């Protein structure tokens, strides 16, 4: 009888030890699929806000002055005027979903972005890190980090050259 009780106890312990705990890290989830769809929409210039919660906050290279989802789409439309082409590259994309110790669900991605400036056809490659917080399947917070220096300097150079050309065209006084 003691052996049966001992055997049953060991079986219960073994089964309870094998039970799956909640997934805290994965590279395959509905949230990752949502982010991949968002990236695809960006590349195709389909400015859809349905993946975002109504109260979402988006921060690009800052922790202040959050944008709403619709303001973010407008931002993308405005900056598109600078590019003959632009988008995230299909190679070297990395996605992960983590659930923090506080129970927050975040998707992180590391991507390569390439754009060609419309004014001079200069190609620019920039590594980008994006992270998205999800609640109930919707993005409630987004942070994007990249170094825009090369683009800023090139746009300033284009503007300076345009001003110089304009000055040269003015009649002599």
Automatic annotation (TrEMBL):
The keyword Signal applies. The keyword RNA-binding does not apply. InterPro entries: NTF2-like_dom_sf (IPR032710). Residues 1-19 form the signal peptide. Gene3D superfamilies: 3.10.450.50. Keywords: Signal. This is Nuclear transport factor 2 family protein. The lineage of its organism: Bacteria, Pseudomonadati, Bacteroidota, Flavobacteriia, Flavobacteriales.
């Amino acid at each position: 009888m003691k052996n049966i009780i001992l055997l049953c106890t060991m079986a219960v312990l073994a089964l309870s030890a094998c039970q799956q705990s909640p997934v805290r890290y994965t590279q395959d989830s509905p949230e990752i699929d949502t982010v991949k769809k968002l990236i695809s929409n960006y590349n195709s210039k389909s400015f859809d806000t349905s993946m975002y919660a109504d109260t979402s906050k988006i921060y690009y290279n800052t922790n202040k002055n959050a944008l709403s989802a619709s303001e973010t789409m407008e931002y993308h439309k405005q900056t598109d005027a600078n590019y003959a082409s632009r988008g995230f590259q299909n190679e070297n994309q990395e996605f992960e979903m983590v659930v923090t110790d506080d129970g927050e669900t975040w998707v992180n991605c590391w991507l390569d972005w390439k754009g060609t400036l419309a004014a001079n056809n200069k190609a620019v490659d920039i590594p980008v890190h994006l992270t998205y917080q999800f609640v109930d399947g919707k993005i409630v917070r987004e942070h994007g980090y990249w170094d825009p220096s090369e683009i800023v300097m090139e746009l300033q150079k284009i503007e300076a050259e345009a001003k110089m050309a304009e000055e040269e065209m003015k009649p002599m006084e």
